[in-house]
Fold:
Amino acid sequence: MGRDVVMTDRIAKPVGPFSAAAWADELLFVSGHVAQDPATGALLHAESAAGQTEQIFHNLGAVLEAANRSFGDVLRVGVFLTDLGDFQAMNEVYARHFDPPYPARTTIQVAALPLGASVELELVVR
Structure:
């Protein structure tokens, strides 16, 4: 039995053995994304949680578009921060990408993220 996955060349190749997103019936599970340059895979905006968050939304938008979805279809967001002191900067960018009613969300502080990122986001989409 195969997996229905979403592929796009508008994002960097994953840094591990996983797909950008995978379908399960009517739900799309979008893997965690950090602020990678789509062309090189390098981390962008290393000094700025806001800049990283903006790049992540750019990359997530490409995945959603490849799946014929939009941010209006997002049901849940998982946010991972290496420093909860970056919460406000992340949240200001986040709020620009969603309209009320907002998706459900969890925000967790973690010890480290891939590529030395300070922000990672994952999505569940209908």
Observations:
- The mean pLDDT is 96.
